[in-house]
């Protein structure tokens, strides 16, 4: 791999590096207290050169990035207390809960993290064609669902067999309330959001996204109605948030970028 620059490592020279060195010690802050208490939050996405994060049907997201991208994504996730995902991602890609072996649990404990990460689904309707694997595999101690008043008490009770269920909002999940629950009730000090685009937009627009990791894959998807990393209402041309590029690595023709979101954009 090639390191072009990394402002998070003092004196890091540009040049060839081993893949294991990239994102090895992210050292996320242990929570954010001002202006609201919440976990330190990073978004982690992979896109094509034309900005698309969807390239096909269910389960096709992994086709965008390379094996290196998959490895780095897993490394980022393992350095946070929790992983967030939107309902669309849970329905279509249906990722499994990554139960860790004893050595990796111990490694996380030494980093001050939960021994097993908390994985959470954010869904206004809490409806799925089948039980998501992360709920089935994670169980109530390691899985959570954040939903709304639109969901019946019966449905909430059904899901509570597999996860802790929290109502945060009337029509859409209130990400500020969700952040307070993650921090104060679930002991989550840092979290990684792996999409989808609607959840990413909600976090950014509410000012609760601190960083963004982006893998830029050397591929083109095309299409006029294909989602990008952040959807939502968008920003006016004169008010686009400007991000601070913290590091840039490359593996062949694939690039790995780490950004800090500006306070004025949150």
Structure description:
This protein has helices at residues 67-77, 87-92, 102-110, 133-138, 153-159, 175-184, 197-205; strands at 2-6, 15-16, 40-48, 82-86, 118-122, 143-147, 164-167, 190-193, 211-217, 244-251, 254-260. It is α/β, with parallel strands linked by helices and 266 residues long. The protein is 22% helix and 23% strand. The chain has a single domain, classed as Dihydrofolate Reductase, subunit A. Strands 2-1-10-11-9-3-8-4-5-6-7 form an 11-stranded mixed β-sheet, with helices on both faces. It is built from 7 helices and 11 strands. It is globular. Helix 5 links the parallel strand 6 and strand 7.
Short description:
With 266 residues, the protein is an alpha/beta fold.
Number of separate domains? 1
- Number of E strands: 11
Helix content: 10-25%
Structural class: alpha/beta
> How many helices in DSSP terms?
7
Q: CATH-wise, what's the superfamily?
A: Dihydrofolate Reductase, subunit A
Q: What is the class in the CATH system?
A: Alpha Beta
Alpha carbon gap, first and last residue: 33 Å
Instruction: Report the CATH architecture.
Output: 3-Layer(aba) Sandwich
Keywords:
266 residues, Dihydrofolate Reductase, subunit A, globular
